[in-house]
Protein backbone atom coordinates (compact mmCIF):
# COMPACT_ATOMS: atom_id res chain seq x y z
CA UNK A 1 0.00 0.00 0.00
CA UNK A 2 2.88 2.38 0.82
CA UNK A 3 4.47 1.73 -2.55
CA UNK A 4 1.15 2.39 -4.24
CA UNK A 5 0.78 5.69 -2.40
CA UNK A 6 4.32 6.72 -3.33
CA UNK A 7 3.65 5.95 -6.98
CA UNK A 8 0.43 7.98 -6.84
CA UNK A 9 2.27 10.92 -5.30
CA UNK A 10 4.96 10.73 -7.97
CA UNK A 11 2.28 10.69 -10.66
CA UNK A 12 0.55 13.79 -9.31
CA UNK A 13 3.88 15.55 -8.79
CA UNK A 14 4.80 14.86 -12.41
CA UNK A 15 1.44 16.24 -13.61
CA UNK A 16 1.93 19.29 -11.35
CA UNK A 17 5.35 19.95 -12.89
CA UNK A 18 3.94 19.69 -16.40
CA UNK A 19 1.18 22.19 -15.55
CA UNK A 20 3.72 24.60 -14.07
CA UNK A 21 5.85 24.19 -17.16
CA UNK A 22 2.93 24.97 -19.45
CA UNK A 23 2.04 28.04 -17.41
CA UNK A 24 5.59 29.28 -17.55
CA UNK A 25 5.69 28.66 -21.26
CA UNK A 26 2.50 30.62 -21.96
CA UNK A 27 3.68 33.44 -19.70
CA UNK A 28 7.04 33.67 -21.41
CA UNK A 29 6.05 32.91 -24.99
CA UNK A 30 5.09 36.48 -25.70
CA UNK A 31 8.19 37.81 -23.98
CA UNK A 32 11.00 36.53 -26.17
CA UNK A 33 14.03 38.72 -25.81
CA UNK A 34 15.50 39.86 -29.12
CA UNK A 35 19.25 39.25 -28.86
CA UNK A 36 21.37 42.38 -29.28
CA UNK A 37 24.68 41.10 -30.59
CA UNK A 38 27.85 43.05 -31.12
CA UNK A 39 30.27 42.21 -33.96
CA UNK A 40 32.48 40.51 -31.36
CA UNK A 41 29.52 38.42 -30.17
CA UNK A 42 28.88 37.21 -33.70
CA UNK A 43 32.53 36.33 -34.23
CA UNK A 44 32.47 34.41 -30.95
CA UNK A 45 29.77 32.10 -32.29
CA UNK A 46 31.74 31.45 -35.48
CA UNK A 47 34.77 30.70 -33.29
CA UNK A 48 32.72 28.21 -31.26
CA UNK A 49 31.70 26.30 -34.40
CA UNK A 50 35.25 26.38 -35.76
CA UNK A 51 36.66 25.05 -32.48
CA UNK A 52 34.06 22.32 -32.34
CA UNK A 53 34.77 21.29 -35.92
CA UNK A 54 38.52 21.25 -35.32
CA UNK A 55 38.42 19.32 -32.04
CA UNK A 56 35.38 17.05 -32.21
CA UNK A 57 33.77 16.72 -35.64
CA UNK A 58 34.47 13.42 -37.41
CA UNK A 59 33.29 14.72 -40.80
CA UNK A 60 34.90 17.99 -41.78
CA UNK A 61 38.07 16.48 -43.27
CA UNK A 62 36.11 13.66 -44.93
CA UNK A 63 33.63 16.12 -46.44
CA UNK A 64 36.52 18.13 -47.83
CA UNK A 65 38.20 15.03 -49.24
CA UNK A 66 35.22 13.12 -50.61
CA UNK A 67 32.60 15.82 -51.22
CA UNK A 68 34.94 18.55 -52.41
CA UNK A 69 33.69 21.06 -49.83
CA UNK A 70 35.82 23.99 -48.67
CA UNK A 71 37.90 23.47 -45.55
CA UNK A 72 36.06 24.49 -42.40
CA UNK A 73 39.13 25.95 -40.70
CA UNK A 74 40.31 27.67 -43.88
CA UNK A 75 36.88 29.33 -44.20
CA UNK A 76 36.80 30.51 -40.57
CA UNK A 77 38.23 34.02 -41.28
CA UNK A 78 35.78 34.51 -44.16
CA UNK A 79 32.75 33.65 -42.06
CA UNK A 80 34.00 35.76 -39.16
CA UNK A 81 34.12 38.69 -41.56
CA UNK A 82 30.60 37.89 -42.79
CA UNK A 83 29.37 37.73 -39.20
CA UNK A 84 31.12 40.93 -38.18
CA UNK A 85 29.60 42.84 -41.09
CA UNK A 86 26.09 41.32 -40.83
CA UNK A 87 23.32 43.90 -40.80
CA UNK A 88 21.16 42.63 -37.97
CA UNK A 89 20.10 39.25 -36.61
CA UNK A 90 18.50 38.08 -39.84
CA UNK A 91 21.69 38.31 -41.88
CA UNK A 92 23.74 36.96 -38.99
CA UNK A 93 21.50 33.87 -38.82
CA UNK A 94 22.04 33.33 -42.53
CA UNK A 95 25.80 33.51 -42.02
CA UNK A 96 25.69 31.06 -39.11
CA UNK A 97 23.56 28.60 -41.09
CA UNK A 98 26.02 28.78 -43.98
CA UNK A 99 29.01 27.95 -41.78
CA UNK A 100 27.06 25.32 -39.83
CA UNK A 101 25.99 23.70 -43.12
CA UNK A 102 29.65 23.34 -44.04
CA UNK A 103 30.34 21.57 -40.73
CA UNK A 104 27.19 19.41 -40.71
CA UNK A 105 27.23 18.40 -44.38
CA UNK A 106 27.01 14.71 -43.40
CA UNK A 107 24.73 13.02 -40.89
CA UNK A 108 22.06 14.80 -38.86
CA UNK A 109 21.79 18.54 -39.53
CA UNK A 110 19.15 20.80 -38.01
CA UNK A 111 18.50 24.19 -36.52
CA UNK A 112 16.40 22.85 -33.65
CA UNK A 113 12.77 23.86 -34.39
CA UNK A 114 10.51 25.57 -31.86
CA UNK A 115 8.50 22.39 -31.19
CA UNK A 116 11.63 20.45 -30.19
CA UNK A 117 12.86 23.36 -28.08
CA UNK A 118 9.52 23.47 -26.28
CA UNK A 119 9.66 19.72 -25.52
CA UNK A 120 13.18 20.05 -24.13
CA UNK A 121 12.14 23.16 -22.24
CA UNK A 122 9.45 21.22 -20.40
CA UNK A 123 11.72 18.24 -19.83
CA UNK A 124 14.39 20.47 -18.32
CA UNK A 125 11.91 21.46 -15.59
CA UNK A 126 11.96 17.87 -14.32
CA UNK A 127 15.61 16.99 -14.80
CA UNK A 128 18.83 18.59 -15.94
CA UNK A 129 19.31 18.32 -19.68
CA UNK A 130 22.47 16.33 -20.49
CA UNK A 131 23.56 19.07 -22.88
CA UNK A 132 23.81 21.47 -19.93
CA UNK A 133 21.30 23.82 -21.56
CA UNK A 134 18.85 25.39 -19.11
CA UNK A 135 15.09 25.93 -19.26
CA UNK A 136 15.38 29.65 -20.08
CA UNK A 137 18.07 29.01 -22.69
CA UNK A 138 15.79 26.57 -24.51
CA UNK A 139 13.03 29.14 -24.33
CA UNK A 140 15.12 32.05 -25.61
CA UNK A 141 16.54 29.92 -28.44
CA UNK A 142 13.07 29.69 -30.03
CA UNK A 143 13.62 33.24 -31.33
CA UNK A 144 15.97 31.89 -34.01
CA UNK A 145 13.81 29.23 -35.74
CA UNK A 146 10.96 31.75 -35.75
CA UNK A 147 13.24 34.31 -37.40
CA UNK A 148 14.28 31.68 -39.93
CA UNK A 149 10.68 30.88 -40.83
CA UNK A 150 9.71 34.55 -41.03
CA UNK A 151 12.61 35.87 -43.09
CA UNK A 152 14.64 33.14 -44.82
CA UNK A 153 12.21 30.71 -46.40
CA UNK A 154 8.92 30.92 -48.26
CA UNK A 155 6.78 28.55 -50.27
CA UNK A 156 4.38 28.65 -53.17
CA UNK A 157 0.62 28.32 -52.52
CA UNK A 158 0.77 24.94 -54.30
CA UNK A 159 3.13 21.99 -54.07
CA UNK A 160 6.01 21.60 -56.50
CA UNK A 161 7.22 18.23 -57.76
CA UNK A 162 10.56 17.60 -59.43
CA UNK A 163 10.73 14.75 -61.93
CA UNK A 164 12.40 13.65 -65.17
CA UNK A 165 10.40 16.25 -67.10
CA UNK A 166 11.34 19.14 -64.84
CA UNK A 167 9.23 20.89 -62.20
CA UNK A 168 5.45 20.53 -62.11
CA UNK A 169 2.68 21.85 -59.88
CA UNK A 170 1.31 19.29 -57.45
CA UNK A 171 -2.04 20.98 -56.78
CA UNK A 172 -4.69 23.05 -58.54
CA UNK A 173 -4.38 26.80 -57.91
CA UNK A 174 -6.73 29.69 -58.62
CA UNK A 175 -6.43 33.42 -57.95
CA UNK A 176 -8.18 36.44 -59.43
CA UNK A 177 -9.54 34.53 -62.38
CA UNK A 178 -6.27 32.73 -63.18
CA UNK A 179 -6.18 28.94 -62.91
CA UNK A 180 -3.09 26.74 -62.92
CA UNK A 181 -4.13 23.07 -62.84
CA UNK A 182 -2.23 20.32 -61.11
CA UNK A 183 0.47 18.82 -63.31
CA UNK A 184 1.39 22.06 -65.09
CA UNK A 185 5.07 22.30 -66.02
CA UNK A 186 7.02 25.31 -64.71
CA UNK A 187 8.87 26.62 -67.78
CA UNK A 188 10.24 29.97 -66.53
CA UNK A 189 10.67 31.68 -63.16
CA UNK A 190 11.05 35.47 -63.32
CA UNK A 191 12.15 35.15 -66.94
CA UNK A 192 14.72 32.40 -66.23
CA UNK A 193 14.68 28.67 -66.73
CA UNK A 194 14.46 26.75 -63.43
CA UNK A 195 18.15 25.84 -63.60
CA UNK A 196 19.15 29.44 -64.31
CA UNK A 197 16.88 30.64 -61.52
CA UNK A 198 18.62 28.31 -59.05
CA UNK A 199 21.97 29.74 -60.12
CA UNK A 200 20.58 33.25 -59.71
CA UNK A 201 19.56 32.47 -56.14
CA UNK A 202 23.06 31.29 -55.29
CA UNK A 203 24.41 34.74 -56.09
CA UNK A 204 21.52 37.09 -55.35
CA UNK A 205 20.00 35.73 -52.13
CA UNK A 206 21.25 34.68 -48.71
CA UNK A 207 22.39 31.42 -50.34
CA UNK A 208 25.65 33.23 -51.10
CA UNK A 209 26.65 32.17 -47.59
CA UNK A 210 25.84 28.49 -48.28
CA UNK A 211 28.93 26.51 -49.35
CA UNK A 212 27.13 23.71 -51.20
CA UNK A 213 24.00 22.86 -53.15
CA UNK A 214 20.95 22.48 -50.95
CA UNK A 215 18.86 19.39 -51.65
CA UNK A 216 15.56 20.86 -50.50
CA UNK A 217 16.07 23.90 -52.75
CA UNK A 218 16.61 21.62 -55.75
CA UNK A 219 13.51 19.68 -54.73
CA UNK A 220 11.05 22.52 -54.08
CA UNK A 221 12.45 25.32 -56.34
CA UNK A 222 10.16 28.09 -55.03
CA UNK A 223 11.39 28.28 -51.43
CA UNK A 224 13.88 31.13 -50.98
CA UNK A 225 13.06 34.58 -49.66
CA UNK A 226 15.20 36.75 -51.93
CA UNK A 227 15.12 39.67 -49.50
CA UNK A 228 13.98 43.26 -49.84
CA UNK A 229 10.40 43.62 -50.98
CA UNK A 230 10.24 40.09 -52.40
CA UNK A 231 6.66 38.84 -52.49
CA UNK A 232 6.41 36.14 -55.15
CA UNK A 233 7.32 34.86 -58.62
CA UNK A 234 6.31 35.52 -62.22
CA UNK A 235 5.82 32.03 -63.65
CA UNK A 236 5.48 30.80 -67.19
CA UNK A 237 3.77 27.41 -67.15
CA UNK A 238 2.73 24.83 -69.71
CA UNK A 239 -0.60 23.37 -68.71
CA UNK A 240 -1.56 19.71 -69.13
CA UNK A 241 -3.47 20.51 -72.34
CA UNK A 242 -0.31 21.94 -73.91
CA UNK A 243 -1.28 25.63 -73.68
CA UNK A 244 0.92 28.23 -72.00
CA UNK A 245 0.09 30.75 -69.30
CA UNK A 246 1.98 33.49 -67.49
CA UNK A 247 0.89 34.36 -63.94
CA UNK A 248 2.18 36.13 -60.86
CA UNK A 249 2.19 33.73 -57.92
CA UNK A 250 2.48 35.27 -54.43
CA UNK A 251 4.66 33.52 -51.86
CA UNK A 252 3.70 32.48 -48.34
CA UNK A 253 6.09 32.71 -45.39
CA UNK A 254 7.58 29.60 -43.80
CA UNK A 255 9.16 26.35 -44.89
CA UNK A 256 7.37 24.22 -47.46
CA UNK A 257 5.92 21.08 -46.02
CA UNK A 258 6.80 17.82 -47.68
CA UNK A 259 3.84 16.97 -49.86
CA UNK A 260 1.75 14.65 -47.75
CA UNK A 261 0.48 11.56 -49.49
CA UNK A 262 -1.11 8.42 -48.21
CA UNK A 263 2.21 6.71 -48.92
CA UNK A 264 4.28 8.96 -46.61
CA UNK A 265 1.93 10.53 -44.05
CA UNK A 266 1.71 8.57 -40.82
CA UNK A 267 -0.52 8.39 -37.78
CA UNK A 268 -1.04 5.81 -35.08
CA UNK A 269 -3.42 3.82 -37.26
CA UNK A 270 -1.84 4.37 -40.69
CA UNK A 271 1.90 4.20 -39.97
CA UNK A 272 1.95 0.53 -40.91
CA UNK A 273 -0.15 -0.93 -43.72
CA UNK A 274 -0.26 -4.66 -44.54
CA UNK A 275 -1.64 -5.90 -47.86
CA UNK A 276 -1.76 -9.09 -49.88
CA UNK A 277 -0.55 -8.23 -53.38
CA UNK A 278 -0.88 -11.75 -54.76
CA UNK A 279 -1.51 -15.17 -53.25
CA UNK A 280 2.26 -15.61 -52.98
CA UNK A 281 3.40 -12.04 -52.18
CA UNK A 282 2.69 -10.08 -49.02
CA UNK A 283 3.48 -6.40 -48.51
CA UNK A 284 4.17 -4.28 -45.40
CA UNK A 285 4.52 -0.50 -45.66
CA UNK A 286 6.29 1.17 -42.71
CA UNK A 287 6.24 4.99 -42.90
CA UNK A 288 8.20 5.84 -39.74
CA UNK A 289 9.81 4.05 -36.80
CA UNK A 290 8.48 6.17 -33.97
CA UNK A 291 8.42 4.46 -30.59
CA UNK A 292 4.73 5.34 -30.13
CA UNK A 293 3.86 2.86 -32.89
CA UNK A 294 5.90 -0.16 -31.77
CA UNK A 295 3.13 -2.11 -30.10
CA UNK A 296 0.33 -1.13 -32.48
CA UNK A 297 2.32 -1.91 -35.63
CA UNK A 298 3.80 -5.11 -34.24
CA UNK A 299 0.34 -6.47 -33.52
CA UNK A 300 -0.87 -5.47 -36.97
CA UNK A 301 2.01 -7.26 -38.72
CA UNK A 302 1.56 -10.38 -36.60
CA UNK A 303 -2.16 -10.61 -37.32
CA UNK A 304 -1.53 -10.11 -41.04
CA UNK A 305 1.07 -12.88 -41.28
CA UNK A 306 -0.86 -15.21 -38.95
CA UNK A 307 -3.83 -14.90 -41.26
CA UNK A 308 -1.66 -15.84 -44.25
CA UNK A 309 -0.67 -19.08 -42.49
CA UNK A 310 2.80 -19.23 -44.09
CA UNK A 311 1.24 -18.80 -47.50
CA UNK A 312 3.57 -16.10 -48.85
CA UNK A 313 6.63 -17.08 -50.83
CA UNK A 314 7.81 -13.45 -50.82
CA UNK A 315 7.30 -10.63 -48.32
CA UNK A 316 8.13 -7.00 -49.16
CA UNK A 317 8.90 -4.52 -46.37
CA UNK A 318 8.75 -1.04 -47.89
CA UNK A 319 10.63 1.66 -45.92
CA UNK A 320 11.17 4.16 -48.73
CA UNK A 321 11.28 7.76 -47.41
CA UNK A 322 11.19 6.49 -43.81
CA UNK A 323 12.86 9.23 -41.68
CA UNK A 324 13.54 6.95 -38.71
CA UNK A 325 12.58 7.06 -35.04
CA UNK A 326 13.55 4.46 -32.46
CA UNK A 327 15.85 1.44 -32.96
CA UNK A 328 13.53 -0.56 -30.71
CA UNK A 329 10.87 -0.31 -33.44
CA UNK A 330 12.77 -2.29 -36.03
CA UNK A 331 14.36 -4.71 -33.57
CA UNK A 332 10.99 -5.64 -32.07
CA UNK A 333 8.86 -5.53 -35.24
CA UNK A 334 11.11 -6.13 -38.23
CA UNK A 335 14.00 -8.34 -37.05
CA UNK A 336 13.32 -10.43 -33.94
CA UNK A 337 10.00 -11.97 -35.14
CA UNK A 338 11.74 -13.27 -38.29
CA UNK A 339 14.41 -15.16 -36.32
CA UNK A 340 14.46 -18.74 -35.10
CA UNK A 341 17.85 -18.43 -33.47
CA UNK A 342 20.04 -15.60 -32.18
CA UNK A 343 21.95 -13.67 -34.81
CA UNK A 344 25.09 -11.66 -34.15
CA UNK A 345 26.56 -8.80 -36.11
CA UNK A 346 29.28 -6.23 -35.56
CA UNK A 347 29.39 -2.50 -36.14
CA UNK A 348 32.41 -0.19 -35.97
CA UNK A 349 32.20 3.50 -35.08
CA UNK A 350 34.82 6.15 -34.39
CA UNK A 351 34.98 9.32 -32.29
CA UNK A 352 37.63 11.94 -31.69
CA UNK A 353 39.58 11.08 -28.53
CA UNK A 354 39.33 14.68 -27.36
CA UNK A 355 35.53 14.50 -27.45
CA UNK A 356 35.51 11.32 -25.36
CA UNK A 357 37.98 12.85 -22.88
CA UNK A 358 36.31 16.27 -22.60
CA UNK A 359 32.69 15.05 -22.27
CA UNK A 360 32.64 11.64 -20.55
CA UNK A 361 29.22 12.16 -18.95
CA UNK A 362 27.72 13.39 -22.22
CA UNK A 363 29.17 10.45 -24.13
CA UNK A 364 27.60 8.04 -21.66
CA UNK A 365 24.24 9.76 -21.93
CA UNK A 366 24.37 9.74 -25.73
CA UNK A 367 25.22 6.03 -25.58
CA UNK A 368 21.85 5.47 -23.92
CA UNK A 369 20.14 6.84 -27.03
CA UNK A 370 21.40 4.05 -29.28
CA UNK A 371 22.44 1.30 -26.92
CA UNK A 372 20.15 -1.72 -27.07
CA UNK A 373 21.80 -2.81 -23.86
CA UNK A 374 20.28 -6.30 -23.71
CA UNK A 375 21.72 -7.10 -27.14
CA UNK A 376 25.17 -5.51 -26.89
CA UNK A 377 27.34 -8.49 -25.99
CA UNK A 378 30.75 -6.87 -26.44
CA UNK A 379 32.25 -3.40 -26.94
CA UNK A 380 35.97 -3.10 -27.43
CA UNK A 381 38.43 -0.61 -28.77
CA UNK A 382 39.93 -1.62 -32.11
CA UNK A 383 42.79 -0.19 -34.20
CA UNK A 384 41.68 2.71 -36.41
CA UNK A 385 41.37 2.04 -40.14
CA UNK A 386 43.98 3.24 -42.58
CA UNK A 387 44.21 7.01 -42.78
CA UNK A 388 43.05 7.67 -39.18
CA UNK A 389 45.59 8.69 -36.54
CA UNK A 390 45.19 6.56 -33.41
CA UNK A 391 46.39 9.49 -31.28
CA UNK A 392 43.38 11.54 -32.42
CA UNK A 393 40.75 8.85 -32.97
CA UNK A 394 39.25 6.03 -30.96
CA UNK A 395 37.28 3.31 -32.74
CA UNK A 396 34.91 0.86 -31.08
CA UNK A 397 33.66 -2.46 -32.38
CA UNK A 398 30.17 -3.11 -31.02
CA UNK A 399 28.91 -6.71 -31.12
CA UNK A 400 25.13 -7.06 -31.05
CA UNK A 401 23.37 -10.38 -30.55
CA UNK A 402 19.68 -10.19 -31.37
CA UNK A 403 17.44 -12.76 -29.72
CA UNK A 404 14.39 -14.22 -31.52
CA UNK A 405 10.99 -12.81 -30.63
CA UNK A 406 7.47 -14.13 -30.98
CA UNK A 407 7.92 -15.45 -34.51
CA UNK A 408 5.75 -14.37 -37.41
CA UNK A 409 4.21 -17.09 -39.55
CA UNK A 410 6.40 -16.50 -42.59
CA UNK A 411 9.01 -18.82 -44.13
CA UNK A 412 9.63 -17.24 -47.53
CA UNK A 413 12.08 -14.74 -49.00
CA UNK A 414 12.18 -11.31 -47.36
CA UNK A 415 12.81 -8.08 -49.34
CA UNK A 416 13.36 -4.55 -48.02
CA UNK A 417 12.78 -1.61 -50.39
CA UNK A 418 15.13 1.35 -49.77
CA UNK A 419 15.88 4.77 -51.24
CA UNK A 420 17.71 7.98 -50.33
CA UNK A 421 14.85 8.97 -48.01
CA UNK A 422 15.78 6.21 -45.53
CA UNK A 423 17.54 8.00 -42.68
CA UNK A 424 18.48 7.75 -38.99
CA UNK A 425 16.76 4.73 -37.35
CA UNK A 426 15.58 3.55 -40.77
CA UNK A 427 19.24 3.56 -41.79
CA UNK A 428 20.09 1.60 -38.62
CA UNK A 429 17.58 -1.03 -39.72
CA UNK A 430 19.10 -1.21 -43.20
CA UNK A 431 22.63 -1.55 -41.80
CA UNK A 432 21.44 -4.37 -39.52
CA UNK A 433 19.87 -6.12 -42.52
CA UNK A 434 23.05 -5.65 -44.53
CA UNK A 435 25.16 -7.23 -41.79
CA UNK A 436 22.85 -10.10 -40.81
CA UNK A 437 21.67 -10.92 -44.37
CA UNK A 438 18.19 -11.39 -42.96
CA UNK A 439 16.67 -9.96 -46.13
CA UNK A 440 17.57 -8.75 -49.62
CA UNK A 441 17.91 -4.96 -49.94
CA UNK A 442 16.35 -3.71 -53.19
CA UNK A 443 16.14 -0.19 -54.63
CA UNK A 444 18.52 2.72 -54.21
CA UNK A 445 21.29 3.77 -51.82
CA UNK A 446 19.99 5.10 -48.50
CA UNK A 447 20.52 8.58 -47.05
CA UNK A 448 22.80 7.43 -44.20
CA UNK A 449 22.58 8.80 -40.67
CA UNK A 450 23.14 5.58 -38.72
CA UNK A 451 24.11 5.81 -35.06
CA UNK A 452 26.90 3.43 -34.09
CA UNK A 453 28.34 4.22 -30.67
CA UNK A 454 26.46 7.40 -29.63
CA UNK A 455 23.43 9.41 -30.74
CA UNK A 456 23.58 12.93 -32.19
CA UNK A 457 23.48 15.72 -29.62
CA UNK A 458 22.67 19.41 -29.52
CA UNK A 459 25.00 22.35 -29.03
CA UNK A 460 24.26 25.94 -28.04
CA UNK A 461 26.21 28.83 -29.53
CA UNK A 462 27.50 30.93 -26.61
CA UNK A 463 26.63 34.46 -27.73
CA UNK A 464 23.42 34.13 -29.73
CA UNK A 465 21.98 31.09 -27.97
CA UNK A 466 21.23 29.37 -31.31
CA UNK A 467 20.79 25.60 -30.77
CA UNK A 468 21.79 23.14 -33.48
CA UNK A 469 22.28 19.37 -33.84
CA UNK A 470 25.92 18.21 -33.84
CA UNK A 471 27.30 14.74 -34.57
CA UNK A 472 30.48 13.17 -33.19
CA UNK A 473 29.92 9.56 -34.32
CA UNK A 474 31.47 8.17 -37.52
CA UNK A 475 30.01 4.81 -38.61
CA UNK A 476 31.96 2.51 -40.93
CA UNK A 477 30.22 0.41 -43.55
CA UNK A 478 31.39 -3.20 -44.05
CA UNK A 479 33.07 -2.21 -47.32
CA UNK A 480 35.13 0.51 -45.60
CA UNK A 481 33.01 3.46 -46.76
CA UNK A 482 31.32 5.86 -44.32
CA UNK A 483 27.64 5.53 -43.58
CA UNK A 484 26.95 9.22 -42.99
CA UNK A 485 28.65 10.14 -46.28
CA UNK A 486 27.81 7.19 -48.51
CA UNK A 487 24.68 5.58 -47.07
CA UNK A 488 24.06 1.86 -47.60
CA UNK A 489 23.97 0.33 -51.05
CA UNK A 490 21.21 -2.18 -51.85
CA UNK A 491 21.98 -5.73 -52.86
CA UNK A 492 20.07 -5.09 -56.07
CA UNK A 493 20.12 -1.52 -57.40
CA UNK A 494 17.19 -0.48 -59.56
CA UNK A 495 16.53 2.54 -61.76
CA UNK A 496 14.99 5.58 -60.00
CA UNK A 497 11.25 5.19 -59.52
CA UNK A 498 8.61 7.68 -58.35
CA UNK A 499 6.90 6.75 -55.11
CA UNK A 500 3.31 5.56 -55.16
CA UNK A 501 0.68 8.09 -54.11
CA UNK A 502 -1.43 5.62 -52.14
CA UNK A 503 -0.90 2.38 -50.26
CA UNK A 504 -3.45 0.37 -52.20
CA UNK A 505 -3.13 -2.96 -53.94
CA UNK A 506 -4.02 -1.43 -57.31
CA UNK A 507 -1.40 1.32 -57.13
CA UNK A 508 1.34 -0.82 -55.60
CA UNK A 509 0.96 -3.39 -58.37
CA UNK A 510 1.88 -0.60 -60.81
CA UNK A 511 5.07 0.25 -58.90
CA UNK A 512 8.11 -0.73 -61.00
CA UNK A 513 10.21 -2.01 -58.08
CA UNK A 514 7.39 -4.06 -56.62
CA UNK A 515 6.58 -5.56 -60.02
CA UNK A 516 10.26 -6.49 -60.37
CA UNK A 517 10.09 -8.51 -57.16
CA UNK A 518 6.76 -10.11 -58.00
CA UNK A 519 7.35 -10.97 -61.62
CA UNK A 520 11.06 -11.72 -61.90
CA UNK A 521 13.54 -14.02 -60.24
CA UNK A 522 15.13 -11.41 -58.02
CA UNK A 523 16.56 -14.17 -55.85
CA UNK A 524 18.59 -15.34 -58.82
CA UNK A 525 19.94 -11.83 -59.44
CA UNK A 526 20.96 -11.36 -55.85
CA UNK A 527 22.35 -14.86 -55.42
CA UNK A 528 25.13 -13.91 -57.83
CA UNK A 529 26.67 -12.14 -54.82
CA UNK A 530 28.22 -15.02 -52.87
CA UNK A 531 28.55 -12.82 -49.78
CA UNK A 532 24.81 -13.01 -49.15
CA UNK A 533 23.99 -15.64 -46.57
CA UNK A 534 20.62 -15.64 -44.88
CA UNK A 535 21.01 -16.27 -41.17
CA UNK A 536 17.41 -17.08 -40.38
CA UNK A 537 15.96 -20.58 -40.51
CA UNK A 538 12.81 -22.30 -41.72
CA UNK A 539 10.94 -25.03 -39.93
CA UNK A 540 10.26 -28.32 -41.69
CA UNK A 541 8.51 -31.25 -39.98
CA UNK A 542 9.41 -29.88 -36.58
CA UNK A 543 13.10 -29.54 -37.44
CA UNK A 544 15.12 -26.37 -37.90
CA UNK A 545 17.00 -26.19 -41.17
CA UNK A 546 18.87 -23.42 -42.91
CA UNK A 547 16.77 -21.54 -45.44
CA UNK A 548 17.51 -23.10 -48.85
CA UNK A 549 16.96 -19.73 -50.54
Report the helical percentage: 25-40%
Strand order of the largest sheet: 10-11-12-16-17-21
Molecular shape:
globular
| Broad structural category | alpha+beta
On the 0-100 scale, what is the average pLDDT?
A: 88
Concise synopsis of the structure shown:
The chain is α+β, with helices and mostly antiparallel strands and 549 residues long.
What keywords describe this structure?
four-stranded antiparallel beta sheet, 36% helix, six-stranded mixed beta sheet, alpha+beta
What does this structure look like?
The structure is a single chain. With 549 residues, the protein is of the alpha+beta class. Among the domains are: 39-151, no CATH class; 154-253, Pdz3 Domain (Roll), CATH 2.30.42. The protein is 36% helix and 21% strand. The protein contains 19 helices and 23 strands. The strands form eight sheets. Strands 10-11-12-16-17-21 form a six-stranded mixed β-sheet, with helices on both faces. A four-stranded antiparallel β-sheet has the order 14-15-13-20. Strands 6-7-8 form a three-stranded antiparallel β-sheet, with no helix packed on it. The radius of gyration is 25 Å and the shape is globular. The relative contact order is 0.11.
Amino acid sequence: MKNQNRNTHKKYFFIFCIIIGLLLFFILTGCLTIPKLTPEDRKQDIQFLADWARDYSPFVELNQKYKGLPGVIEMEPTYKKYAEQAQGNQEFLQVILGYYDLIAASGHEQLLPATDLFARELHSLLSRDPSGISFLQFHDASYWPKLYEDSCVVHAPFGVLRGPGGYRTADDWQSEGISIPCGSRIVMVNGMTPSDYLQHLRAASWLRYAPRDIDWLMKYLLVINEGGAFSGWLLDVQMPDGSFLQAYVPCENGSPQARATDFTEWSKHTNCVCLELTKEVGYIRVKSMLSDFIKTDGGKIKRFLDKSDNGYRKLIIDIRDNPGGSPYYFYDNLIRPFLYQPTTYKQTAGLKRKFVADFPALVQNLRNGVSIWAWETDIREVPPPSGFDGNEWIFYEITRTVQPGDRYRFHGQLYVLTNSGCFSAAEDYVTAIKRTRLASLVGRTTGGGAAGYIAPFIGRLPASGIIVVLEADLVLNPDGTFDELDGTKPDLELAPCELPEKVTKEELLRDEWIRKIIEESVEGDIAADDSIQNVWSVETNGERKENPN
